[in-house]
Amino acid sequence: MAADTAGTRDGAGRGTAGARVPRIARSPLVWWRRQSLRFRLTATASAALAVALAVAAYLLVGVLGRALMASTESIAYQRAREVVALADDERLPDPIAVTDGTIVQVVDARGRITHVTAGADRLVPLADPRAPSGDRGRMVDGGPFGIPGPLLVVVLRADEGRTVITARPFKDVADSLTTTVHMLALATPVLLVLLGAATWLIVGRTLRPIAALRRGAAEISGTARARRLPVPEARDEVHELATTLNDMLARLEAAEASQRALVSDAAHELRSPLASIRLQLEVALGHPDGQDWPETAEGVLEDTLRLSRLAEGLLTLARLDERRRPARWEPVELADLVRAMAARYDDAVVTVGRAEQAVVRGDALDLGRVLVNLLDNAVRHAGARVRLDLRASREHAVITVTDDGPGIPEQDRERVFHRFTRLDGARSRDDGGAGLGLAIVRETVRAHGGAVHLEDASPGLRAVVRLPLSPSPE
């Protein structure tokens, strides 16, 4: 290794010999993106204002110069026309009387200057008498004639071969343009600074509600009961943003409360079968000689099945909460599905009434689980018969499951769709449910874009599922 090479770099970007390692130049775009929004808005507005002011100044000077040029040219042409008229009438005085500073020379056919204004040159014409005649002027240098600055010269023809040359000094016009340029060069930066400062203040006041939102968000903790952001009074986009964020926080709080309730209810439901299993095993192990082991195994198996059903229901709800739509999205013929699900039960208990043709889009397995949960619930509480019907309207398929059992009071028909909700008549262990069946039904039907509710069947209870029909291909 050569002696003059730098040592290996350490974490601070310096060589082992202490030499500073030059940093790689950052991209201007990266630097720009790292600046504050207030700075970027102010800089962008200032740059746009600078361009606008520069263009406006350029146009002002150009328009002003052309206007002064046209005005000077018009005066020179007008004076030339007046002198031509006097010359044609043979009333041309010498010297020619002009009060506005216009210089006039009249040249005869032989090229001699015969008439001039006071103080004008009588020997050398200001322009070539043979130059084209017209109202358009041309610029000449006034130095050779003892006149400072340029001259705007107009040439016109008169009778008897005479030529009228008029000239107006252009120095005053040039000085006016120069003064205007100097004033714009001084005033434009000052105006730009003032506008930039005003933009900085206005943007700062505009972004103040966003800073309040940021501070409010920083103050929100995970354990806060009421988590809300300050809403500005102005009915602008920031107000809508704050309102939307508060709605989102409200939904998050509701979801968090639902998750906590689910965990609490799940722990409570798990406690009972686990305690039963533990008690049966402790009694069996404490008195092994007098224990009926097959009976103990049956009891443990029953509680294990309860745990398995509870775990399956919780996993189903978790999947529904996660994806919010069916795992598969395909056409499902409900009439075939209704007959297939009814065939799993005794014909003397479950009968299929009307089963019209109806095609919906979704997951056949999920929809089959909906029918099984409703039929299980109806068979469990029916007196003798359960009727399953499918009707199709113009836009919806309607599935009804009707039993002739005791029914549910009207005030409890919505509550039974909540998770782990069981009414007084269904709380016994022999019922076998964990209060998740109807909750799974509602979440699955919602994922398919439908709705479900309970109504009185007089006698009994009727569960009504409404699903949108699949649009028919054209």
Automatic annotation (TrEMBL):
Looking at the record, the residues that make up the HAMP domain are 204-257
Q: What does the UniProt keyword field contain?
A: Kinase, Membrane, Phosphoprotein, Transferase, Transmembrane, Transmembrane helix, Two-component regulatory system
GO cellular component terms, alphabetically, are: plasma membrane
- InterPro entries reported for this sequence: HAMP_dom (IPR003660), HATPase_C_sf (IPR036890), HATPase_dom (IPR003594), His_kinase_dom (IPR005467), HisK_dim/P_dom (IPR003661), HisK_dim/P_sf (IPR036097), Sig_transdc_His_kin-like_C (IPR004358), TCS_sensor_his_kinase (IPR050428)
| Domain of life of the source | Bacteria
The catalytic activity of this protein is classed by the Enzyme Commission as 2.7.13.3
Spell out the CDD domains in the cross-references.
HAMP, HATPase, HisKA
Give this protein's Gene Ontology molecular function annotations: phosphorelay sensor kinase activity
Q: Which reaction does it catalyse?
A: ATP + protein L-histidine = ADP + protein N-phospho-L-histidine
**Membrane-spanning segments:** 41-61, 181-203
Residues annotated as domain Histidine kinase: 265-471
Q: Where in the cell is it found?
A: Cell membrane
Q: Which PANTHER family match?
A: SENSOR HISTIDINE KINASE TRCS, SENSOR HISTIDINE KINASE YKOH
Task: Name it.
Answer: histidine kinase
